[in-house]
Structures are given as structure tokens and as C-alpha cells.
Amino acid sequence: MSETEDVNDPGDVREEETVESDEFEPVQVFGDSESMDLRPGSDDCYKCSTCDTNCPVAEVDDEFPGPKFQGPEQWRLKRKDDREVDDSITSCSNCMRCDSACPSDVPLSQMHNTARGEFVSEQMEKLSREYVRNRILANYGTLARLGSKVPRLTNFVMGNSLVQTLNEKLLGITSEREFPEFAEETFREWWEKRGGTAASKERAQEARAQRGGAKIERDEKRVAYFHGCYSNYNTPAVGKATVRVFERFGYEVLVPPQQCSGTPMFANGMLEDARRSAETNVRELAAAIEDGADVIASCTSCSMALRQEYPELFDFEGTASVAARTYEAAEYLRLHEDLDGALADAEVDLDPVGTEVEGEEDGDAEFAYHAPCHARNQGIAGQAVELLDHLDGASAEDVGPSCSGISGTYGWKAEKYDASMEIGAEMIEHMEEADAETGLTECPTCAMQMEHGTGYDVRHPMEVLEDALVDGESA
Amino acid sequence: MTDTEVVVVGGGSTGCGVARDLAMRGVDVTLVEQGNLTHGTTGRMHGLLHSGGRYAVSDQSSAQECIAENRVLRDIADHCVEMTGGQFVQLEGDPDEYFEEKLAGCRECGIPVEVLSGQQAREEEPYLTKSVKRAIRVPDGAVDPFRLCVANAASAEEHGARIETHAEVVAVLKNGTQVTGVEVRHDSGPGKREHRRAGERETITADHVVNAAGAWAGQLGEMAGADVAVRPSKGAMVVTNCRQVDTVINRCRPKGDADIVVPHEATAILGTTDVEVDDPEDYPEEQWEVDLLIDELSKLVPILGEARTVRSFWGVRPLYEPPGAATEDPTDITRDYFLLDHADRDDLAGLTTIVGGKFTTYRLMAESVADHVCGKLGVSADCKTADVPLPGSEDFSVLREYMDEFGLRSPVGRRSVQRLGSRADEVLTTDGPNPVLCDCEAVTRAEVRDAIEGSGTDLNAVRIRTRASMGNCQGGFCCHRMAAELHPEYDESQSREALDELFQERWKGQRHALWGEQLSQAALNYALHATTMNRDRDPAEGDGTLDFGRFDSGAPNRPEETEARDGD
Ligand SMILES: Cc1cc2nc3c(=O)[nH]c(=O)nc-3n(C[C@H](O)[C@H](O)[C@H](O)COP(=O)(O)OP(=O)(O)OC[C@H]3O[C@@H](n4cnc5c(N)ncnc54)[C@H](O)[C@@H]3O)c2cc1C
Ligand code: SF4
Ligand code: SF4
Q1: Which terminus of chain A, N or C, has less C-beta within 10 A?
Q2: Is any Cβ of chain B less than 8 angstroms from the Cβ of A77?
Q3: Domains, in order of start, for chain A
């Protein structure tokens, strides 16, 4: 409970943190403008090692020195003209668990991201297989844009085992995993076809009229939806569900132009790529905020990037306000609407349903819910389970606090595949033990790992909310 | 026949420098020091390798000595020096005339200077305040006094000198008007320090005694019956957790308190104050000094106002006044050094005192003493200390390229090699694993073991050689790891005593930094040590012996054993 309340803190610290104290605003620290001086961040570390004991990679990879070394210790030992970064930084999966574990507010993931960026731009061989592979993985959005132009062909080619073997041999992308399929119609295509914002406005008004009584009412409610790459190219159903649920609560949805949130780029130290994407995103989302919208995302890594990583790494105009006004989709509804009440009044009959539990006749659809690390960081790890508690006909069982192990692109790297599966083992085991045969999570790559490990279908909470709250749409 | 030709009293920079110089000229030397090396002022100084800029207006001959020695040390003590560069910063409102005088003074003394605009100064040092008007860039540097002294002592030993630490001179031996040696009290030994080993007294006869006892020189003079008017003056320094500046930042104003920040290893040191004291061993360490440093210097570097400080420490300047000077304000007493020939001065042959001066010019001071003593002894060898690199600084540039080879992670390897210089290969090449023992300062087991070889159970001596326990946890996480390395060569009770001593020393400096983050750190250290090592035990209880046989080996208990234990 208190987890969600934290986020609602009126004295939202994110805004403060992004406004530099004028007094000691540094001009430029490590020479080149890209790199930041995070040495003072080490002041907060009192070496308790809580971060190390929470790091899923350190747990399975003996070669990985852990976040305490990677972050505050390594930064503290730096000097202006002598600041080589240890190559172990590339083993950090950027799950950001260390961030939320630290009792002392050490900016760990900012330290990792910055160090990784430095390592990649200054120390990594630009023609190496690893660099090329990471660049490709980091720029999944671009790849997906091309692939989804001819989805069936791409799906066919990528599903081909010969191609998978080549990927592994040439690029070091594991052949153990199935590439995600591209949808035949992207979310944006659907959105345009459906009539874009104008249609959304109409639907929102209808919903307000239906539920609120008078048609001319209080201020318009507006959200800008950051769908991210994955729900655009691979799971448009999640995007559609999000749009419909918000419209159901009377929100006009905007879908501003957008690029990759940057999450996979941070994780691979491709800060220049991330900067380009972030610049577009901040510009577009800041404009939507100007128009009175708040920003929502259905992917927890996307909202994490907008809320925390952007202000930590970039300083475009509007970065702070985008960070302060971005929310995870369900989190937003819980803050501003009576989502719990609406769910209590609703009921679902979901298919596929979970296993019938002996002695229980209602035949609830059972989900095995995994909270993504980045949801944990935003204080919403308990949210999905709580929501489904209110809903008749569905329930979710939390499969525990472990990391899924895929961490975006990490688990796709051939050399990290085993570690990824070892990290994920606990989650997979708990999923199998749970009374459910369908998974549930907000994060698309966690979903891949869940599916890969158990063979279950995996849904997004927004899809369940859609089933519960939205009457069918034919568009 | 005497035991040795020359006894040098004092293991600070001056004494170590003298011992090396004489030994390299083929003189048989014994150095005695009451604590470990750098126990005195040398271990409690600011770490500035002067460019001479600070003296360029007030004392030009010192300034010229400084720039000359600055160049020499970069060469012969490469591994102890970091050429950070420095700035004299003028803030809005600071006098223009002084800035001009400083600039002209530096040029007159041959100190290379460059004037930076406020913007340029801030580009070089981003945390400088916005109200920087302009700055003068000078070749200031950072120097590690510990490493430098230890290297001088090691070099002296290589040339046949005997170095005795924890050996206090309790009497100066005389035969009429001829000084004939000293009587020392060994704390443990002679030889390497070993806790719980009984010490003894030793008489060391010599042809000549050099009094390099710094602020204690007066006391030593007294033992010999000579009046040496040392006026000790204390100065406070505050150590921050990390480096806010990478160059030396001086405030460009006529002399005053709290006007300089020196980057030192992973930290920055703020300094200093200047207050005359009676006793160099016993003087008050006052909180106002700490507050003053932080307040004043955060006008120059505002982030310092928020910075974590890990400890504060005080040193005493061994200022000397020739008889009859009686200067009122200690800040007006000259910083020059004096060589006192007691044969001339007090009709006391066989004794020379060297006092005053600064760390940066230690080698020059040592050279003049060695020249003088050699003259007395009839030795005609030349001084070589300006040309022959110290152990650790030989062929260092070549070695820098090989840093990665010790299998250490990047910052650990880099810092280790910077500390060890050309000795890195010898020290860091190990057969077995070489874990990091001190995480804060990136010190590995191999380096700690090497230091123990050189200094016995004296963990403070290990600390100054390696920097282990000098980082942000102030030893909370590594003192015991260091102590554990003493075993099995030394037994449990010795290791424990050595640990206590180191831990107390670390605690001493933290007392003046107990707020904010360092207070959290101290609380965590306390909790850890209390709960895992029972260090909060009532000292009055028990006889201090632990029955280690009663602890199991860590292997799973066999059932009989469990039963047997149940009975207790
Ligand atoms: C606050 C402060 C900051 C300073 N900053 C700088 C700086 O940044 N740069 C710079 O160049 N200089 C600096 N100095 C000056 C410099 O530190 C000293 O001039 C220099 O270290 C003096 O070295 P020393 O060997 O003469 O004296 P010490 O280091 O004091 O050595 C004398 C030694 O004699 C030993 N001794 C005394 N009595 C006996 C006895 N009876 N038997 C055996 N041993 C005995 C003592 O234990 C001591 O170790 C600073 C000084 C102070 C106080
Ligand atoms: S981000 Fe995750 S993988 Fe990286 S150091 Fe932190 S906890 Fe470990
Ligand atoms: S959890 Fe935070 S305070 Fe503790 S060691 Fe890690 S970074 Fe330092």
C-alpha cells in the first residue's frame, strides 16, 4: 500500500533533483561535455553492501564485482585525467535494483549508466563484434521499424533456426531465444486508422457523459501515451487496451510522435543514441504537457527512463517537467480515479483461464504475476496484485521479488544467456508452483523471459483491466 | 670506535632526507624515531608540493627554493607526486593589487605562470564559485609525505643505514663539550616493531648527532644543554571524502587562514590555521578551526559546504626564531630553515640542528646538513640526491604501460601502481589470489603484506605505506582484514593489539567529522564491530584472553560435539 503512496508524494522530489543548485552548478567536469562528475555522489555511500546483496547479477556471476564497486567506489577513485572504467561495467544489466536497495540515496544507476557510456565511447573497440551486437540490440526500435514493414517475412526469417545460429555465431545473440513476433498492424497504424486524437476525444466525451451525467463538464482530462517500441511493433493489444481503459475513464488520449525510451541504449552504454531519442521524446512530451496532458506509459522501463534516467543523464529543456509528470498507466488511474472501486463493481470472464483450484468453484482466472525491477523502483511492485484483488473473476499471485534475469537486452547476449537463466530460475520456479498457467507483468522483456522459462502466455495488466472495464470496441 | 658515524634523530621528511643523503655519500648512519616514520609534522601536513607561488610576494628566496625543489621532486619522486597544477584565484572583491603583485612575484622567482579568465578557471575547476574574477595558474602539485619518507628511508637502508622506529631518544650523551651519541628507549625491539615484545634501552655512540626533531628540536636541544627556540604553531586540516577539485586551489589574498584546498589521492584537504602552542605533543584540537575551514573555503568552492568530511587533523609547524627576534604574531615568523652548528653557537661539538623550512624543500635542507656534517667528518663525497630517483620512481614511465597485467580491476590496478611506482611488479605479482582488502582506497592483500614485511605489527605504518583504512569508511571495513594478515607470523594477541591501535588512530580523526554521512558511517562501523567482534565489550570484564578452542572450525558440527556443547 504505502508503496503506491510514496509516488503520490506532493513534494515530488524528482523536480527538485533535476533543478541544479545554482550555487555549485559545475561548468563542465570531465573535459568532454558528455561525461558528468559523479564523485560527490560517493559521499552518500557508507559501504553497507546492501546494494551488493540485492544485485541479481552479482549473485550468479562471480566475476562481477557488484554495484558498490561499480558505483561509489569506482567513481570515488577517479581523477580528472585518469578515469578509465573497468570493463565489468558491461556486465551490469541495468535492472536498477541497487538503486532501490540503497538506504542512503547513492545515485547508483546514474553512476553505472554514465560509466558505461564512458566505457563504450572511449574504451570499446568500435568494430568489435560485441559493440556491433550491442548497438543492434540497443537500437531495437529501429530494427523493429524495418522489420514490421514486412512482418510476416521478418517473422519467418527470424524464426528460422539457420538465421538464429548465424546470429549467435556472427553477432553473439543467443539462439536459445525465439525472436518476438512482429504484429501485422502496428499500434500507431491502428491508432491512425481509428481516427487518432479526434476519435479519442469523442470516445472520452461519451464515456464522461455516460458515467458523469452532463456532457459539458469540468476540465478536459488528457493523457499523452508513451507506448514504447514493443507495444507498437509487437504487442499492439497492450497499447489498444491502455487507450481504451483511459477513454473509459473519460480521458482524451494523445499519442505524440516518439522514439525508443532509451532503456536498451542506457543498458548498453550507447548514450549518444539515447540522447537523440530522449531529445525527441522530451520535446514531444513537454509539448503535450503544455497542452494540459500528463504522460502515461504501459511499459515500466519506459516510465522509469522518463522519470529517472532522463533527468539524471540529460538536461534538455522540459526534462524535469516530463520526469515529474510521467506515470505508469495503472498507477495514474489509481491516483486520479477510483480504479479500485470500478474494479470492485466489475467482473471478468477470461479466457484462457487458470487451472481450477480444488474446492473453489468460482474458477477465477489465475495469473502468476512478476513485478519488473523497474516497477519496483517506481514503488508499484504490489499494484497489479492489489488491483486484481478487487476484481471478481481474476486474481494474481505474486511470484516473488526476484529479478526475471533478462533485463532487456542482457539475456539476449550469448555470453550472458546462462547467467540470465540462473537469475530467472527463482521466478520461473515460483511461476510453476503458482496456481496459474498464465503470466502477468508490465514489462515486455520480463514477459519474454517468463514465456521462455515456462511456456505460459503472458498478459499485461492493462489487458485485464480492458476486459474488466471496457465494453467491446469494433474499430 | 663508535657504533655508527652519524645518528639522525627524527624520522620526518628532514631526518629521512638527511639519512639518505649521508648514506649515499658512504657515511654510516643510524636514524632513530620515537614513533613510526612521519609520526611528527610530516605525517600531519597539507600535502602541497609548493610551486613557490605562496611565497612569491612575502619571501622570494623561499619561493625560488620551492620551484627548484618542485622540479627535482617531480623527477626523483615521481611516484609520490601528482602534478595537479594549481590556481591562485581572485574572487570579486579581492584586491587587484595583490593579484598583480603575486603575478609579478612569481615571474621574478622563475615560477611559470599563466593568467586565466574567470571562465577558464571554472572550466578547469568546475566547482569553483561563479564569482571567480580571474586566476593565476602555477605548477603546484600534490605530494604524499608518507610515501616520500618511506622511500627515503628505504633508499638509506639500501645504502647501509640503520633505521629504528619506535625508538625514542631519552638522553644525549656527552663527554665534556663533545656530544658522543644518544640513549634510546625501544618500544619493542630493537628491529621491527612487534606488539607485546618487550623493549629495551640502547646506547648508540656516534661521531656526530643530527637533531632533525622538528617541533621537538627544542626538547632535544635541552637534553644536550643547548637552547633551540622552536615556536610550534598548530594548523588544522579537514579531509573530504572525495575530490571536489583536481588542482590545488589557493585564494589570491595576502596571507590568511583557510585559503587553500589540495587534492590528495581520492580526497581533498582543506587548510589551514596558524595558532602558537606550547607543547607540540599536547595541544587543543578545536571545532572552530574545522568550522572556519569549511565556511571560508566554501566561499571559494561552494560544494564544500555540503561535502562529506571524513576526518580532521592537526599538525605543528616547527617554526624557528633566531635568538632575539621575538616576533609577536606566529604567522609572521619566517618559514625559512636554519642549520645550527652547535660547536660554533654553544661550544658543543658533534651536534647539528636542522629546523624550520617546509616539506617541499626537505631535500635541499638535507643536502646542506649532509654537506655540513661531511665537512666535520672529513668526507668529501658529493650529494647525489637530486639526480638518483627514489625506490619506486625508477623507470616509472615504462611501468605505467603495464598496469593491466596484475589482473586487477581498472581503478584498483591504477591506484596500486601509482602508489608503488616501479616497485609494482615486485609487490603485485603473486601466485595466489590477490583480493582487495581496503575497498575505499583500492589496496590489495599483496600490498598490505609487502608493507607488513617492512614494518612488523605496526599497522599504522602499514596504513601510511598503503593508504589502507584511509578512505571513507575510515577503517570500519578493513582494519580487521589488515590485522588478519599479521597472522600466522604474529600471534593472535599481537594482532589484536595492533588492530586496536589502528582502530583508535582512525577514530581519533573522525571525532571532528561526526555529522551527516560520516556520523552514519561511524554508527555503522560501531554496530558492525560491536556485533561481529564484540568490540563494545566491557573492558573491565574478563582478562582479555579468549579461548579460541571453543569456537568451531566453521565445518558442520559432528553430533557428539553438539551434545558436549549443550552441557555448558
Ligand atoms: C599544518 C601544516 C601544513 C603544512 N603544509 C605543508 C605543505 O603543504 N607543503 C610543505 O612543503 N610543507 C608543509 N608544512 C611544513 C612541513 O610539514 C614541515 O616543515 C615538515 O614536515 C617538517 O619535517 P621535519 O622532518 O623537520 O619534522 P617532523 O616531521 O616533525 O619530524 C620530526 C620527528 O622527530 C621525532 N622526534 C621528536 N623527538 C624525538 C625523540 N626524542 N626521539 C626520537 N624521535 C623524536 C618526531 O616524532 C618526528 O617524527 C606544513 C606544516 C604544517 C604544520
Ligand atoms: S543495475 Fe542491477 S545488475 Fe546493475 S549493478 Fe545494479 S543491481 Fe546489479
Ligand atoms: S547500498 Fe548504498 S550505502 Fe550501502 S554500499 Fe551500496 S551504495 Fe553504499
Answers
A1: N
A2: yes
A3: 32-122 (1.10.1060.10), 187-337 (no CATH), 345-469 (3.40.50)
